[in-house]
Amino acid sequence: GLAIAELARGSGSLATFLHVQSGLAMAAIYNLGSEEQKQRWLPPMAKCEKIGCFGLTEPEAGSDPGSLSTTAVEEGGGYVLNGEKKWIGNASFADAAVIWARTEDERISCFLVEGDNPGYHAEVLPRKGSQRAAWQTHVTLRDCHIPGEARLPGANGLGSTLSVLTHSRYGVGWDGLGQAMDCYETALAYTKEREQFGQKIASFQLVQAKLVEMVNEISLSQLLSIHVGRLKDAGDLDPATVSMFKMNNVAKARKTAALARDVLGGNGILLDYRVMEHMADLEGVYSYEGTNDVNTLIVGQAITGHRAFAPRPPKNPEPEKDGKAERAEQKPE
Predict the structure, then answer these.
(1) By CB neighbour count within 10 A (0-12 exposed, 13-18 middle, 19+ buried), where does 5 fall?
(2) Is 81 helix (H, G, I), strand (E, B) or coil?
């Protein structure tokens, strides 16, 4: 976590690359892969000699990964994958793509697809205003044949997917903290140098109020980060706490970046001071690894016991019945 925060100070895009490489792709192989898969991929990936990506999100399945439509059909001792993935970081230059797909028994499973597979194609998404140095892609899988041993044996249903996302989401919370710290320190240094009305702007009450608000929120986020990190080390970290952690740190980082830009005045929009870069990069962080709204509802479910997510309709809904028959079948839970 501390390492991610420091990387994020320098570049939100670099931190995003690390989240994909280590927090998602390597974590999936480590937690769900076979011993052979681990030995083959993890050592070179740890050195960035091999690059990985994590293909879960689809054009029509973002916050609701359970509705993914990519399929994996058994054929000739292996599998044939068909479908599309979107917003997949690193996929255009990945050596190994961790692809989530639905098998014929309707269970969500995970597969390793090598980047040179002729059925695998990744096209970089153009015209992004956030995370500009990180390449997100649209992945197309068309009759993508892979051997049977490419399936990750530990991946068995949606719960396997969510366990990897929980691990990566933890890192993203530290990402928000690192970017917030850089914004605050840039603003503080600027106020001690910039003069207006014959004095340093650090002496103005309104400027000090903004700096105090920033350092206060960052200090609280630092304490939360350390506490959550200790829970993770002890094996006591639950998914709802991770969602609260990411939601808190990134939302406060977003506000800190806006305050820092305000303190810098017109100079705040110049990339020389990098606050504007953080502002843009944080917009991406605010949405990936669970949007702020979705993480809010995860925490809400944990504290109330009620699931606020809209239920998914069945894939093959039964024919409508007349009201009398429907009432007859209703029974108390």
Answers:
(1) buried
(2) strand
